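Action item from last meeting closed. Structure (584 res):
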């Protein structure tokens, strides 16, 4: 129906007759002359409908409105001096329309397509209209390019693309499963996979050596800006490898994706242990685009005259006192602001927030009276304070302090506007704890198939795993581990998790059986494709980079899913909906 896409047309086509097709981006009637901006997938071209050139085309143009679907044929000409539009690729030329066909009409738009302030729910309800914008097209063009680049680089490294099941067995992997009732086996359920974890390990047992998949994953969990109930990950597994082999492949993959999409990033990434990340930044995914590093001052505070601080400092293994220096913070923040920061950290469980200001005549602040001159000087040296700086202190139980001080670090960076744009800072966070203990119950921090460095321990929370996360600008982009490939080791891990032989066999029997048949050493990683594209495009949410996303309540406003089903469908599945008691 067309001879050219709009973006292909330039000065070389002047004098030629061509045909273009697309949607009306705008229409302007200049008292006889009608100008139409016609847009196709990624560019706009100006059409001129002049009754002196073609009466029929002009008459049809009088009826044209925004978002009508047109096919236009005509000769290209130069716009003329002073009439060019430098914002457009096609800004030096225009089409004098000889034939105009309205292929389809459009109702008035429910919202202005390029208005960033439009309510997101309206945009999601009419998602197919939002996808017409240049911004959306550019996002999905880049996503396509990134996905193709990922496939190409993994293919060049001899990885096989293998699909794994979408309906499978429900296994505990951290989040809730989406369950699918079976019609054939009444009362029994499949689950949608949270990841292809178990199947990719089975592929290694099967001798495939190197596997990858652009995999759909599903998790029934509370949502936020970087989470969706269904998401896509680049899933990779390889045999006869160690941690360095896996990291080399991951860095090659990420570098090729960014390079093919027009970005320049380092060939290798910085590294940091999980312990250092938590102690210095209060997060296992620290944003390295800015500093604001926490410093431990618990030994200095142990000597102070404040009973609260000194008692906290007496148990340094259990507790923390962290200092967070803000360069020129005394000049940036008022006393009222600094006191107000206490209200911010209280939202995350803090009992308070101390601070000092570095003045010309020394360190000042409400806490100064509790310290000797020598300890004041020790704080200045430990925190490397200069005149004009402010320093904040958090004290209490280790996990709590690291959490709220880590959040406070990010909060300060945001309000000070010191986070650079268009910068990609990658970081490997490594040596994660194997386990965490909550309410007296031992849980796997990653998953129970992760290889521990050693099981020689005094405190179970001190066991480190051979696990690694890749962090980009403070967002966890993905991660992986070296897997357990020996049945005895896997049984020991289940035992530490309180999973008995019968339960282990019931939930993971097919994997445990496979490990008995010569499973090779293996490991891998997965990258969140949606998060990757979100960060590459500067989008504020992964909803912008998924063609048909869900809301934060896991609803599709376009299709109205989830929705009720009729009684016959429920009967076929041996299900009955229990009526909820009315709320009063």
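Sequence:
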């Amino acid at each position: 129906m067309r001879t050219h896409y709009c973006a292909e047309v330039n000065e070389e086509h002047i004098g030629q007759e061509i045909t273009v097709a697309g949607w009306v981006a705008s229409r302007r009637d200049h008292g006889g002359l009608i100008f139409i901006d016609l847009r196709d997938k990624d560019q706009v071209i100006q059409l001129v409908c002049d009754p002196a050139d073609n009466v029929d085309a002009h008459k049809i143009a009088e009826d044209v409105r925004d978002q009508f679907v047109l096919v236009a044929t005509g000769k290209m000409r130069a716009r003329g001096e002073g009439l060019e539009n430098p914002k457009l690729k096609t800004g030096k030329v225009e089409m004098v329309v000889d034939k105009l066909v309205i292929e389809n009409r459009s109702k008035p738009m429910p919202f202005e397509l390029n208005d960033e302030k439009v309510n997101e729910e309206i945009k999601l309800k009419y998602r197919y209209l939002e996808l017409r914008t240049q911004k959306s097209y550019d996002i999905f063009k880049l996503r396509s390019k990134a996905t193709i680049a990922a496939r190409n680089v993994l293919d060049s490294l001899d990885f096989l693309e293998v699909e794994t099941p979408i309906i499978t067995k429900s296994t505990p992997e951290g989040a809730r499963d989406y369950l699918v009732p079976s019609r054939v086996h009444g009362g029994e359920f499949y689950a949608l996979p949270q990841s292809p974890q178990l199947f990719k390990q089975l592929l290694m047992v099967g001798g495939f050596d190197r596997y990858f998949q652009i995999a759909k994953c599903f998790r029934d969990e509370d949502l936020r800006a970087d989470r969706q109930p269904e998401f896509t990950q680049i899933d990779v597994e390889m045999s006869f490898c160690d941690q360095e082999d896996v990291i080399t492949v991951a860095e090659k993959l990420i570098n090729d994706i960014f390079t093919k999409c027009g970005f320049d990033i380092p060939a290798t990434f910085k590294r940091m242990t999980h312990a250092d990340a938590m102690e210095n930044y209060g997060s296992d995914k620290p944003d390295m685009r800015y500093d604001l590093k926490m410093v431990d001052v618990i030994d200095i505070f142990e000597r102070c005259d404040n009973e609260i601080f000194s008692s906290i400092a007496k148990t340094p293994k259990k507790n923390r006192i962290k200092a967070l220096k803000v360069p020129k913070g005394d000049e940036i923040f008022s006393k009222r602001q600094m006191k107000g920061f206490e209200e911010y950290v209280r939202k995350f469980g803090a009992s308070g927030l101390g601070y000092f200001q570095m003045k010309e005549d020394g360190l000042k602040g409400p806490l100064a009276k509790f310290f000797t001159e020598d300890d004041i000087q020790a704080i200045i040296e430990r925190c490397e304070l200069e005149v004009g700086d402010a320093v904040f202190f958090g004290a209490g139980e280790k996990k709590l302090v690291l959490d709220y001080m880590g959040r406070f670090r990010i909060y300060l960076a945001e309000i000070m506007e010191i986070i650079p744009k268009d910068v990609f800072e990658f970081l490997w966070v490594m040596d994660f704890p194997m386990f965490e203990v909550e309410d007296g119950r031992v849980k796997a921090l990653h998953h129970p198939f992760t290889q521990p460095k050693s099981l020689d321990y005094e405190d179970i929370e001190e066991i480190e795993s051979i696990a690694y996360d890749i962090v980009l600008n403070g967002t966890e982009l993905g991660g992986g581990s070296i897997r357990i490939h020996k049945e005895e080791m896997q049984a020991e891990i289940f035992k530490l998790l309180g999973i008995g032989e019968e339960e282990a066999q019931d939930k993971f029997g097919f994997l445990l059986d496979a490990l008995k048949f010569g499973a090779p050493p293996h490991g891998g990683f997965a990258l969140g494709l949606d998060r990757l594209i979100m960060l590459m495009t500067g989008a504020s949410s992964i909803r912008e980079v998924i063609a048909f996303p869900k809301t934060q309540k896991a609803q599709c406003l376009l299709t109205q899913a989830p929705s009720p089903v009729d009684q016959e469908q429920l009967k076929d599945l041996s299900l009955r909906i229990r009526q909820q008691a009315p709320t009063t």
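Note appended to the action item: The mean pLDDT is 94.
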